[in-house]
Amino acid sequence: MSDPTHAPALRATRLGREFGGHRALHACDVELPAGRVTALVGPNGAGKSTLLQLAAGLLRPTSGEIRVFGEAPGTPGARRRTAFLAQEKPLHAGFTVADTLRMGRALNRGHWDQDAAEQLLTGSGIRRDARVGSLSGGNRTRVALALVLGKRADLLLLDEPLADLDPVARHDVTALLMTAAAEHGTGIVMSSHVLAELEDVCDHVVLLKDGAARLSGDVQELREAHTWITGRADPAEADGLPRSLDRGAVVHSAVGGRQVTALVRTPPPADDGRWITETPSLETLLLAHLRAPRPAAADEEAAA
User: Fold this and answer.
1) Which residue has the higher pLDDT, 200 or 191?
2) Which of 169, 134, 133, 162 is nearest to 148 (CA)?
3) Which CATH number fits domain 10-210: 3.30.1300.10, 3.40.50.300, 3.10.310.10, 3.40.50.720?
4) pLDDT digits (tens, 9 = 90+) for 94-103
5) pLDDT, position 21
6) Cα–Cα–Cα angle for 294, 299, 302, rounded to 5 degrees
């Protein structure tokens, strides 16, 4: 397997992509270390699928640059080191499952791992002579993921890989992906709208919003750089927060009845006994940043 440590797994610099005048990505800067499991999150239309397709070499940037292990996506070196799973899980409906795996082996001669591919199908009840078009959505996802894992790439680009799976299958597939990351140093970028399922599997996160990265970094470091506070709302303040708190440090706050909650960049407010402070969960952190107002600087860039 190639040594993935010499360059970031993915680096985007001022990356932009337009579709008919619509900016899917604009001035997007992202750098992902090799061998990390990265959650790619954001609202619908934030540019997650576009970023993954650019990294896979299926789209070309309108502006800026993107590199995979230092190489341009779509080049032979980048194709060898990446495997992409589209949200639609496109497979040839007329092929049998066995045909599909044979195709994967033929397209990846010399570095196909049949055992890794078969692991996705073991215990699923999927017959190898079944036509792909006859399979349920969840089983088609398993076959598509089998192609991805069988390639033994250094970086897996997965667009909503768990969306069609039932809870047990989600658990089993996630475990296989984490095994690939742990045993082979495989980097994984997976987009998801289910924030709660990312907490225990991802050690890096990128939050896209309005076509740019609004939050990016190591999960633990980002959590420790924020504080979740809960307390009795101050009736003298419109936002319910203590007057002494720097409003520039507040990511998002909400008042419910007599209580106010807020995510703030550390340090938290002085402990006067009125506030409960804790390190936010990943889900809490991401939800607050998703709800946060768009930065003024982003509005100015978008208008440029």
Assistant:
1) 191
2) 162
3) 3.40.50.300
4) 999 999 999 9
5) 87
6) 125
